[in-house]
Amino acid sequence: MITARELLMHAYYAASWPVRTIINRRDALRGKAPISVLFYHRVADSAPNPWTCTNAQFAQQMRWLKQHFDMITIGEAQQRLRNGLSNRPAVCVTFDDGYAENCEQAIPLLVREAIPCTYFVATRYVFDQLPFPHDLARSQRLQPNTLNQLRDMAKAGIEIGAHTRNHVDLGQIHDPHRLEDEVVLAGEELQAAVGKPVRYFAFPFGQHPNLNAEVFHLAHAAGYEAVCSAYGGYNVPGDDAFHLQRVHGDPEFIRVKNSTTIDPRKRFTKRYDYETAQHEPAETRSEATAKDEHAV
Ligand SMILES: [Zn+2]
Fold first, then answer.
1. pLDDT of residue 294
2. Distance from Cα 87 to the centre of ligand 1, integer Å
């Protein structure tokens, strides 16, 4: 059943189509086509919640994306950003957290269709087989991936990335030892456990108040090649290729269509600048986190 919210989005998509077509064509000719990095969490047909897509929804989105975009790795996205040669619409697929059900249909589909994917994992939940705190808060005990699943995914070409140890809000942590543990040591342990390099890091929650300039510097010094946020926004040549902004892999197809064909409104998303960032007060933090609960 189609909701009123979806209808509105369809109307906005149709109304803005002419202008976005013109802008997208102009950007592509200039080598400045924005790159969308999508983040998904869980693809499953049971226990729906705001961060779950059904298998059918996910398959429909991937089919459509593959028809309309270059499906690229994070490394390829960074190369296009650095070389200023982004003249084709392109999308990266990522996942956050590490849910077991993703390995039933979603990951095999990506492997079969040769769609590159980076899969960010919060290690404690996989290593100790514990449910995630944001699911427990909704009284859902959902199964995290096993280590064997991560190893099999890595063997099949899925890039495994780090997403802290305890899925903490790094915007609130400034103790250097804790940051080192959540960002650097968790990544090193993940790498040792999976047996493949862990090159990328994604912030839990990923909204502006959940980011932390110290973490960007720490991740860079530790040898991570990219850090991902999740507050929306695109990546355009000329932007810092170390920080990739991501848009939500929404269960609603129209929202993914709207994001990846470059929503004119989302072009103006304020990029987090870790060189000049100041710590935001706590009340702003909780408000923003509450506002966008799908960004887990
Ligand atoms: Zn997460």
1. 58
2. 31
Q: Which CATH superfamily is domain 4-291 in?
A: Glycoside hydrolase/deacetylase (3.20.20.370)
Kindly give the distance from the C-alpha atom of residue 175 to the centroid of ligand 1, in angstroms, as a whole number.
21
Q: Where are the domains of the chain?
A: 4-291
* Ion ligand 1 contact residues with beta carbon within 5 A: 96-97, 204, 296
Distance 186 CA to ligand 1 centre (A): 14
Instruction: Compute the distance from residue 205 Cα to the ligand 1 centre, in Å.
Output: 6
Residue-wise DSSP of 122-166: -HHHHHTT---HHHHTTT--PPBPPHHHHHHHHHTTPEEEE--SS
- CA 42 to ligand 1 centroid distance, Å: 10
pLDDT tens digits for 232-287? Answer: 999 999 999 999 999 999 999 999 999 999 999 998 899 999 998 865 544 443 43
Q: What is the pTM of this model?
A: 0.94
